[in-house]
Amino acid sequence: MKKKEILQIHSLLHILQQHAIAEYEVDGEAFEEYESLDITPYQVYERKEEHKEAVFALSESIIGTLEEDSGGHDDDRTEPIAAK
Asked: Apex CA 32: angle with CA 67 and CA 5, to 5°?
């Protein structure tokens, strides 16, 4: 994946993070691992690998937050998608 694409994904995930904190009152501590990397999507001159690491950390944090919110149970609506 090209750096520009990774930056776009990083930006979208960052927006999701900010939305989750503001609208759904998600605790900022859920994103500690991402915050510890000290990189934002606006730091375009950082290395591609650093943004890639941030994307993985941020996506894992978002997934963890969603799992906690749903009680850790899979939603029935995802079964048909997973079966394909």
From this structure: 80
Distance CA 48, CA 38 (A): 14
Cα–Cα distances (Å) from 31 to 17, 41, 79, in that order, read 8, 15, 28
Give CA 73 to chain center in angstroms: 19
Write out pLDDT tens, residues 10-56: 999 999 999 989 988 888 899 999 999 999 999 999 999 999 999 99
One CATH from 3.40.50.10490, 3.30.420.40, 1.20.1270.110, 3.90.79.10 for 3-72:
1.20.1270.110
Over residues 50-82, the pLDDT tens digits come to 999 999 999 999 999 888 876 655 555 444 444
Q: Report how far residue 80's alpha carbon sits from residue 44's, in angstroms, rounded to the nearest whole number.
A: 39
